[in-house]
């Protein structure tokens, strides 16, 4: 589930295999457009356009969340632009 400050997009939920991780977009956040992957054992910050990991703390297996992000890159960018007002 992508949890935005004011929206939840359930119809594009990530697979069950990584439901313990959360994708978050914080719209008062800085550019470049990015999303956060939050888990019990760590966190990551990932650019939407390139899917480069900008920050990683702790231990997270990012393979499945990154595959999901690749498939849903347009949705992530659309949400960023819609709610942040940043046309990046």
Which secondary structure elements does this structure contain, and how are they paired or packed?
Layout lengths: L1 E3 L3 E2 L12 E4 L8 E6 L2 E6 L5 E6 L4 H9 L1 H12 L4
Organism: Sandaracinobacteroides saxicola
Pfam family, one: DUF4160
Protein name: DUF4160 domain-containing protein
Shape: globular
Order of helices and strands: EEEEEEHH
Whole-angstrom Rg: 12 Å
Intertermini distance? 23 Å
Provide the β-strand percentage band: 25-35%
Low-confidence stretches: 1-17
Mean pLDDT: 77
Question: Please, could you describe this protein's structure?
Answer:
With 88 residues, this protein is of the alpha+beta class. The protein has one domain. The protein has two helices and six strands, in the order ββββββαα. It has helices spanning 63-71, 73-84; strands spanning 2-4, 8-9, 22-25, 34-39, 42-47, 53-58. The radius of gyration is 12 Å and the shape is globular. It starts with a strand and ends with a helix. 22% of the residues are buried.
Short synopsis of the structure:
The chain has 88 residues and is an alpha+beta fold. The chain contains two helices and six strands; from the N terminus they run ββββββαα. The longest helix is centred in the last third of the chain and has 12 residues, at 73-84.
């Amino acid at each position: 589930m992508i949890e935005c400050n004011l929206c939840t997009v359930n119809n594009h939920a990530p697979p069950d295999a990584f439901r313990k991780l959360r994708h978050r977009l914080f719209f008062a956040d800085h550019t470049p457009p990015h999303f956060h992957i939050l888990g019990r054992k760590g966190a990551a910050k990932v650019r939407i356009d390139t899917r480069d990991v900008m920050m990683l703390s702790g231990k997270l297996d990012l393979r499945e969340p990154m595959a999901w992000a690749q498939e849903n890159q347009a949705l992530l960018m659309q949400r960023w632009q819609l709610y942040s007002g940043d046309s990046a």
